[in-house]
Automatic annotation (TrEMBL):
Name of the featured protein: Haloacid dehalogenaselike hydrolase
InterPro entries referenced in this protein's UniProt entry, alphabetically: CbbY-like, HAD-like_sf, HAD-SF_hydro_IA, HAD_sf, PGP-like_dom2
GO molecular function terms noted in the UniProt entry: hydrolase activity; metal ion binding
Organism annotation: Galdieria sulphuraria
Keywords of the record: Hydrolase, Metal-binding
NCBIfam families (UniProt xref): HAD-SF-IA-v3
KW Metal-binding (keyword) present: yes
Length: 236
């Protein structure tokens, strides 16, 4: 049994491949707010690998390309970003409820095996708490009970690549850095894990597969049967 070891999963892109639902939801919210903005796949790929967090993506984008007409003060910018992100989250939740999105390949087997062997399982996501809860309830279903800790972006002041959420998870799990391994899908997540002093495995998606993951201890297209849990803790 491995009660003194923990595996920390990102949610979107690791447990489920949901990034396209997020992109669609951003665009629906941009349309609702009459911004004229559309994030196509190449642009969204760039954003996914540049900025962590939804509000942060929106702010970064408008700062780069210019704010919508009539938005000039910092308060107006803050209110617009909050409103766009709030509506985007609601659209995403509606899409997720209507979808039959599965767990990524290998995830079910990996969770079951890790839990049976006594590993402490945790989710750390930059997403909204409601969205993460919905993934746990509708996609993980009975496996959600195998996670002893679920942290969403709402609980930290700084999103990935800042290590805050991973440091918080490590402390709440009561484990050392050496006893934790993170599973991520992006360079931003990898940077956050590394900054927290944690080893990181990458399972990239189509939006992140072109990134450089040289600082990861391993990169897998999926967590198939050939991926054995204990080998993660043998890595330096």
């Amino acid at each position: 049994m491995q009660e003194n070891r923990g595996i920390i999963f990102d949610c979107d892109g690791v447990l489920i491949d949901s990034e396209e639902l997020h992109r669609i939801s951003y665009n629906k919210s941009f349309q609702l707010h009459h911004t004229g903005v559309v994030w196509d796949e190449p642009l969204y790929e760039m954003l996914q690998n540049t900025v962590g967090g939804g509000k942060e993506k929106i702010t970064w984008y408008f700062t780069k390309v210019g704010w919508p007409s009539g938005i000039s003060t910092e308060e107006e910018k803050r209110l617009l970003v909050n409103s766009i992100h709030q509506d985007k989250t609601q659209y995403y939740i509606e899409l997720l409820r209507k979808s039959t999105i599965p767990l990524r390949p290998g995830i079910a087997r990996f969770i079951d095996e890790a839990y049976a062997r006594g590993y402490r399982l945790c989710v750390c996501s930059a997403a909204n708490q409601r969205a993460v809860n919905l993934v746990m309830e509708r996609v993980l279903k009975e496996r959600a009970g195998k996670f002893c800790l679920v942290l969403a972006g709402d609980v930290v002041s700084r999103k990935k690549p800042d290590p805050e959420i991973y440091l918080l998870a490590k402390d709440k799990l009561g484990l050392s850095r050496e006893s934790c391994v993170v599973i991520e899908d992006s360079q931003i997540g990898l940077q956050a894990a590394k900054a927290a002093g944690l080893r990181c495995i990458i399972t990239p998606t189509k939006y992140t597969e072109s990134q450089n993951f040289q600082d990861a201890i391993a990169v897998y297209s999926e967590l198939g049967d050939n991926v054995q849990i204990d080998q993660f803790f043998l890595q330096p």
